[in-house]
Amino acid sequence: MYRATLRSVSDPLREHVCLSCLARGLEAQPWARRFHTAPRLRSQATESSSTVAIEEQLKALEKNLPDRRTPAHVKKSLRTQNPKSPQNADKKAVRKAAKQEAMKVRKKDPANQAADAETPKEENKQPEQKDKKDQKARAQQKTSPDSSTSPKPQVSANKQSTKLQLPVPITGKDTGKINADRDSVKALDVETPEVPQLAYGLDRVLFNPGVYHLRDPRSRVYNFDPYLGSIMPVTEFDFEALKEYITSSKDEQLRSLAQKEKKKYIGSSSSMTSVLSHFHYLLSYWREVNIQQVSRGFQERLRTFTRLLRAPSAMFLRYQNGVYAIDADKEHDTANILMNLGKSMEKLLTMPKEEFERYRRSSSNKISAEEEQAVPEAYHYSTYGDFLMRSQLDAYDPRLPGTGMFDLKTRAVASIRMDAKNFEHGLGYEIRKAHGTYESYEREYYDMIRAALLKYSLQVRIGRMDGIFVAFHNIERIFGFQYLSLPELDMALHGQYDTALGDREFLLSLQLWNKVLNKATARFPKQSLRFHFETRDSTAGPPYMYIFAEPVTDEEIHAIQTKNQAEIDAYQRRVLDLPGRANEDDDTTTNDTEDIPADFESSSPADDLAEDSATTKSETSQDEAETTPGKEIMGFALTVRNIVDGEYVDRPIQFQSPNKWSVDYELNHLDSSKCWKLYNACQERRRKALSGRGEDETDVAANTYIRRLREYAKKGRKYRKEQNKLDEQEKLVVLRD
């Protein structure tokens, strides 16, 4: 075989040769196809005979080729030919006359006349369209999404506005245009007490992006004081010593400031963010969250907000002495351990160890309620339009940009959040790695994007803060910390680090909200009102927002706000007096299937907007017995159209400060005698969403996720037991000790 290969290389002409290819190279006719077969083996013919045969064939072929050169007499004729000779002139005249005769016949035909009339328009129109497309393409090429030099934003495809289809008649509408190009939130110069700073050297987290581990899992070295590793149990912390939270309607200083500044509406950051979230859904055309920070290996890719966050929002507008106070509606509020733990951990992060230990019930130097009350709360006050907004100040660092203020957030792990009422089953779940579907910071950050960052970003803007400081924990231990600045929050929510888009949307939301409240208070002057806001998705067009306003008395407000108070008090007594788990490592003490309802679903369901569509279809089929026709109600359906730099768009993309953003709004008035069905359906959707036990659950049966979390919690308890044994054998190492 090796010798045969050598022969094929050394004697390539011994194979079949196509002489037609050679003939075409010598300008032979296409039909001149001749073949010559050379012997395959040296024994059949010698090399010289095959070569001679090929050369003879080529010579014979070359002799028979026709001469394609121009004959000499033809060349002479061409040189002597005169284009202006009479003979050539006659030929031209004949051709010209024939052409003119054909044009006369064509003009007499009506069909040809119509075609001739339309052709120039089409020919003129196509170049114009092409020029416009070319100009637009060149403009898009010049403006890249990450460009900081050009203010031209990328905009989403403009969908045609469709007429709003509602199941009740529209009795009227208010239309207008708003913009906030030159507006900004104005801060009031009010003297505030000193704002605390972070303790234990935690300020290092503020200036290092990403997660900062409390303890390095590989080297087991503590980056901060090991005292932070164990959280004081809620049964040992004296919550009665803490100051009670003051709602907007009970804040006399806030009301007096509003009267001084001639503002009509007052509210706190916690009572306003829920409603402002729905204005974000409306103005952003249900913009999906940005999960680019999540690795490709992370299994879940859902980019919608959680069902709990999309649920209808309710609030009270309580009237007193010419000022309306915004209070959150607590009809479906329930107690959980995270409410208590958030208060105690804020003290832990901003106090030295000795001062924090004074809040322990068994402390010999326990802090008294009088001492706690003597330290006033620090608030920031700002105004915009008719609003006066209050924001509690948690922490401060003078090295941060702007005001230097930032918010403190304590974020429990997934096993606790998904069933906060029965948190005992989720104890032990730990964060042990950076990436992964479970037991990772990536899981916590992904859930936080979908469930909490929108609320956090709105609170930061109301308080004119720089960002949020997050502590990740499992109720028993703290695992790490992360500082998220406002640009990072906007990147996850708006898809860009430039805060211009989020700032402008915040101001436009306040303007729309202001107009809605003005309409309702004009209809029911000097009365307290109960509002419901819900942004609805539409399969046939852009989203719209349902708004319902119902007059209520102080007695009705009190009954609604204290509806679940007895249940909350009972839970608080149970949790605060809860004894320590003596057999926490005994696998037989916890039944992993206990208290899991059959209709419980995990935090990673398929998008449940289909259920909302089904609810919409049933809005018009409810019984008349469910309505309350004897009571007045005011209903609206709000739609908007975004205009960026003079062009209608679904939503702004890569928006910058020089860009102009205005909004055409249409506030449709619903027939008050027939919109009770819509109102009842909205209340039912809210009740159904808030009656769940987890952060993102629906009514579809899916126990797999919660079972998986409890399995990891059981493994975590075993892992922690092993780590505690190592700590007993080895000396703890602390960085910069």
Automatic annotation (TrEMBL):
Signal peptide: none annotated. One of its GO terms (biological process) is mitochondrial RNA 5'-end processing. InterPro entries: Pet127. Residues 61-163, 579-632 are annotated as: Disordered. Residues 61-70, 98-110, 118-137 have a biased composition (Basic and acidic residues). Residues 138-154 have a biased composition (Low complexity). It comes from the Eukaryota. Residues 79-88 have a biased composition (Polar residues). It holds the Pfam family Pet127. GO terms for cellular component: mitochondrial envelope. Residues 584-598 have a biased composition (Acidic residues). This is Mitochondrial mRNA processing protein PET127.
